[in-house]
Amino acid sequence: MIYSSNDHGRAEAAFKKVQRAQESEKAKTEDEAEAQSVREKTARLRALRLAKEAVNLEPPVKKKPITASDKPVRG
User: How far apart are the two ends of the chain, measured CA to CA in Å?
Assistant: First the structure.
């Protein structure tokens, strides 16, 4: 069977089209993975920040000094 240069050109164009589609899909997958990683990191950092803010908002524990009347009596 004899192949013409026109057939070769079409085959090469089809191959490049498939190759571009595969590269596009790979890039899309990588972008989605990176976006997911950023979302997870953001959520983790937000949780840490909110926890820190919650601790800072709690009123400090007031310690009452121990007086002589508060001490237990041993007998």
Answer: 116
2: left (phi over 0), alpha (psi -120 to 50) or beta: beta
pLDDT tens per residue, range 25-51: 999 999 999 999 999 999 999 999 999
Q: Spell out the domain ranges in the chain.
A: 10-59
Q: Whole-prediction pTM value?
A: 0.52
How far is the CA of 39 from the CAs of 3, 26, 32, 49, in angstroms? 53, 20, 10, 15
- DSSP letters along 12-65, please? HHHHHHHHHHHHHHHHHHHHHHHHHHHHHHHHHHHHHHHHHHHHHHSPPPPPPP
